[in-house]
Amino acid sequence: MARNHPVSLLSQRFIMLVALLLLLAGQTAVSTHATTTATSPNIVISQIYGGGGNAGATYTHDFIELFNLGSSDVDITGWSVQYTSASGTAWQTTPLAGTIAPGQYYLVQEAQGAGGTTPLPTPDASGSLNLSATSGKISLVSNATPLTGSCPLADAVDFVGYGSPNCAEGSAAPTLSNTLAAQRGSDGCNETDSNAADFASGAPNPRNSSSPTNVCTPPSDDAPTVTATTPGNGDTNITVSSNITITFSEAVTVGSSWFNITCSSSGSHTAASSGGPTSYTLNPGSDFDPGESCTVTVIASEISDNDTTDPPDTMPADYMFSFTTAVSNTWIINEIHADPDANEGDANNDGTAHPGQDEFVEIVNNSGSSADISGWTVSDAVGIKHTFPSGTIIADQCAVLLFSGGTPTGSFGGAVVQTAVSPLALNNGPETVTLHDGSAIRATVSYGSEGADNQSLTRDPDLSGAFVKHSLASGSGGTLFSPGTRLDGTPFSGCSAPADNAPTVTATTPTDGATNVAVNANLTITFSESVDVTGSWAAVSCSSSGSHTVATSGSGSSRTLNPSPDFAPGESCTVTIDKDLVSDSDSDDPPDTMTADYVFDFTTAVSTPTHILLNEVDSDTPGTDTAEFIELYDGGSGNTNLTGLVVVLFNGST
What we know:
CATH superfamily of the largest domain: Lamin Tail domain
Oligomer: single chain
Helix content: under 10%
Strand order of the largest sheet: 36-38-42-41-40-43-45-37
Number of domains: 5
Strand content: 35-45%
CATH topology of the largest domain: Immunoglobulin-like
CATH class of the largest domain: Mainly Beta
Shape: rod-shaped
């Protein structure tokens, strides 16, 4: 036991001076250590056991095991392992010496208990730290100066809190016991800077520098990649003022020229870059144009990952993605007819229902002013179908009506009417119809199988509604199409519809006054425009056969009458078209019906008599010749018309 000796005043001053110098030296040592820890990251605490010599323990001593998970030797001379309780602030040390090779273990033997049956393998260093069997804190330090404070993580090469400590790397390692040690996964190679993730509890397995080595496989590094973008590749209807977000697979550093933004109409865009390190946002210096396609390129050489496991460091290749901005509502595709009915589909009103020529696209100018669309195009998913010729000017709130073919006839509500340069040949579905001004998309519409139902698709309501089948649209009255007009047949407000004329009969077959008309002939009436007929709109009456019923067929501007029964030979017939039962199909009314009945006449052909026999002749009666006669007999079906026949009598031999 040491004795206490009196100390002189001079000695006291000397001692105080020495203490002050030691304190300054200690501060200098801590500062030096803080720099050193960052340079030796590869030595870790690989195993902790605090139950040595306790009841039920196999090993007689506590121990701390170190491990080199790096790829080069590390000299740990002058280092120390240090311990304090789960909530402690006073640290005890065990000095270390020697070099640890890659994959090599280093065993530090600590305090011995009263129990246990098996000594540790030959330790590489020894101390007397009495570790808790359940909870505590162990620090590996690159010097021998005792730590201070309860959580000196910044001063540690490695740090492990186990059980219920008040400090750990991430979350604590498991609670231990007399029979359980904390063991770093993969025999020491796991290192995520989370004690909970890196350690598991298991039976103590002390290893020293003579134990088989376990060289860790260096973690493989993947090159950084783009994992997500907003907008996504191929996205449409993107707001023209949108920012762009790019997310990488890992933390990266971007160069000053790491992206390029180019658009089909507005050209190249600069952008302010913010965010990071895994997600960056680009705020373009100017808005995009409506309906244009934009491509963003992430430059591979300008992107490098933030980890130190290289190569690879940069992206393997440039990353490109594209999007299309939203189309403005200044131009609206309002009606599309892709599937005209073979009988009732005469949309262009040229007198013939045609499954191809009667296709049409109706586009409305909703821009607020008249517009010259010369050179603009209409295309489908295949390509351009029509280029509007020079001088195509559409008034605000009026429509341009593009038919696939034929000879469009009528006013179509005053819309500008054109026939496509190439047949539209629209798919019944799926299909996309696009209006393009040469630089950007002005309007585009896609539809599916609903386009195949012998009628058009129209917006309901006009201009702003969704597309529906025309016959189901509110106010359509069940009609199949309304080219150039609103769905109820009324003109768009900006269209100047020409004055409407009443329908008239322009031609008939047979013509008025025709003769030699076949008794089984049908009658054709052609009108000046598409009409609707109702009831007994046509009456047929003949001089011999009387009145005839008629079956009506046809549509648009032409109707055919099939009289029943057939006419009689050589009779005169009159056809009367009732003005009140024929009305035009357009909505520009009045006038709607014909102004007067239309009447035309014809005469049927005389049939050639057959089976007429000279049955009896009296050429020499007594007395005067007035009683002589010739008798004819009808050996056929009877009712033979003899008009035009001549009986010739030859007297004598010549």
